[in-house]
Amino acid sequence: QVQLVESGGGLVQTGASLRISCAASGRTFSSYIMGWFRQAPGKEREFVADIRSSSGVTNYADSVKGRFTISRDNAKNTVYLQMNSLKLEDTGVYYCATKPSWVPSYGYWGQGTQVTVSS
Prior knowledge:
The chain is mostly beta strands. It contains no helices and eleven strands. A hairpin with a 4-residue loop joins β7 (68-73) and β8. The model has no long low-confidence stretch (mean pLDDT 95).
């Protein structure tokens, strides 16, 4: 099994920056993808960003491109999401997830961390 623990969420004002982290432990895969998702109140969970363990290639949702940066520290088994120029619509519970790179769906999820952006 894989355990994922998010941290770093909080309450910030619009335009501010925040970095959230996700520490992974337990079973490891030779090649995997770490992703960040978020869920706003009353909305479905949506993809935010992901990063490949081996190549470091990243992908972002259009809504966060240019503002958010996903990165990883393989030595610490930790992935980060640096969020800049935060907007009200970035509010939500942010979840990290992971899967082997050859598997289509994410099977391991963290418990989530709340990010609230206020005006």
